[in-house]
């Protein structure tokens, strides 16, 4: 919750990103009040049982300091209902994904394709309301499929339903991640609906959040997606309304801890991770405390390797290294220029990447991590640099 007590902040669901290790890592970095899973794609045969790592926080009764919102995607109401019933004994509610713009779900009649025809969208939601307890499901949507012309029809039709909440990403499916989020539409939905409306889009810093909150005064719950990838301390910044100061030595521990959590969060290693959660390591976040991150790294390293491993000797799975590089590619856009060196992304091992940080910043002086608007274009769908010529674009 922000300092004024008016706004609650959560981690957005992100396909291929906001999985268990990332959620646990974000809880340590800047402690969002709630976090969402990426969608679980439900079909007529899947899942027969829940994957171990899909919603471990609720299915394994972990005390991690944040509320978990499991998200399910389906083309048919019955598939969502069946999967939700697997989760509801432990979860407060289950979220229906009506926002994913990816081609595969859309071509299969799921995700944002549900927004094409209001009657189909509302009929789907009504079927869920008829089959599940009141306030046991929520919906996450975009402002429309091709455009926002049907947005009011889509949202007003939800008014009679016992939704737990409605989350609106203020872009259409066609927009994907280009253009500006339509906070005027999110505000309009919040004014009209009896359930809480959660707003999403373009929250990158305390300054941007101040503008957005002023534009949507009826919205009290917000989620952050790409902004949290670019600056994992964003929730700490939003709560305190000031940028966070860190050092290179702390950054190394943070990145190394993400790698180890990624390893331990895999299905076959989750039993190594569980004792750390049960031990209470997620009772408090590490934030920007070097001492807290050192202690967490030692716990994770010992759980993974049976000992405390020096950064230069830290080895992880190839897939884990790829995940670390993905996060680093976003994160470096909020760091000083020295960290933007492309060679770091070509590291052949985690140890090489971590020791490369010392090479880039041997002085280990404190610096501020903050959004740098000059890199915003890199994280759009078109990746078109402002002012670029057609050839450059």
What is the topological layout?
Elements: E1 8-11, H1 20-29, E2 34-42, H2 56-59, E3 67-74, H3 77-87, E4 94-98, H4 103-107, H5 118-131, E5 137-142, H6 151-156, E6 166-169, H7 183-192, E7 197-200, H8 206-215, E8 221-224, H9 226-230, H10 234-240, E9 244-246, H11 248-264, H12 270-278, H13 290-305, H14 318-331, H15 350-360, E10 367-369
Parallel strand pairs: 1-2, 1-8, 2-3, 3-4, 4-5, 5-6, 6-7, 7-8
Antiparallel strand pairs: 9-10
Overall tally of domains: 2
Radius of gyration: 21 Å
* Biggest pleated-sheet summary: 8 strands, parallel, barrel
Q: Structural class, judged by helices and strands?
A: alpha/beta
Mean pLDDT: 94
Beta strands, count: 10
Count of DSSP helices?
15
Overall form: globular
In the CATH hierarchy, what is the class of the largest domain? Alpha Beta
CATH architecture of the largest domain: Alpha-Beta Barrel
What are the secondary-structure elements, in order, as H or E? EHEHEHEHHEHEHEHEHHEHHHHHE
CATH topology of the largest domain: TIM Barrel
């Amino acid at each position: 919750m922000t300092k004024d007590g008016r706004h609650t902040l959560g981690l957005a669901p992100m396909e291929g990103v906001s999985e268990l290790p990332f959620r646990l890592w974000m809880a340590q970095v800047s402690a969002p009040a709630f976090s969402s899973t990426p969608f679980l794609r439900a079909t007529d045969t899947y899942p027969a049982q829940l994957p171990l790592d899909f919603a471990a926080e609720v299915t394994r009764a972990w005390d991690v300091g944040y509320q978990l919102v499991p998200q399910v995607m389906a083309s048919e109401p019955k598939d969502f209902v069946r999967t939700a019933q697997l989760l509801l004994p432990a979860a407060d509610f289950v979220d229906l994904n009506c926002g994913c713009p990816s081609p595969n779900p859309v071509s299969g009649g799921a995700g944002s394709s549900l927004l094409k025809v209001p009657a189909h969208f509302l009929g789907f939601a009504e079927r869920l309301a008829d089959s599940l307890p009141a306030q046991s499901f929520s919906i996450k949507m975009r402002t429309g499929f091709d455009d926002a012309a049907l947005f009011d029809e889509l949202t007003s039709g939800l008014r009679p339903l016992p939704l737990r909440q409605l989350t609106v990403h203020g872009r259409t499916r066609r927009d994907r991640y280009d253009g500006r989020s339509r906070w005027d539409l999110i505000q309009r939905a919040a004014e009209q609906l009896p359930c809480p409306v959660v707003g999403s889009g373009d929250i990158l810093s305390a300054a941007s959040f101040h503008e957005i909150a002023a534009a949507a005064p009826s919205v009290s719950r917000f989620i952050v997606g790409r902004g949290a990838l670019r600056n994992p301390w964003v929730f700490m910044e939003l709560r305190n309304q000031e940028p966070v100061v860190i050092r290179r030595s702390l950054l190394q521990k943070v990145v190394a801890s993400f790698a180890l959590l990624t390893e331990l969060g895999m299905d076959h290693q989750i039993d190594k991770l569980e004792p750390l959660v049960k031990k209470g390591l997620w009772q408090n976040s590490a934030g920007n405390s070097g001492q807290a991150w050192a202690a967490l790294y030692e716990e994770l390293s010992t759980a993974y390797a049976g000992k405390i491993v020096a950064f230069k000797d830290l080895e992880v799975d190839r897939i884990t290294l790829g995940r670390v590089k993905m996060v680093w590619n976003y994160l470096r856009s909020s760091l000083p220029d020295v960290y933007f060196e492309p060679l770091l992304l070509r590291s052949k091992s985690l140890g090489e990447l971590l020791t490369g940080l010392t090479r880039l910043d041997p002085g280990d002086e404190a610096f501020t991590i903050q959004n740098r608007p000059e890199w915003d274009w890199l994280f759009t769908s078109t990746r078109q640099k402002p002012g670029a010529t057609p050839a450059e674009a």
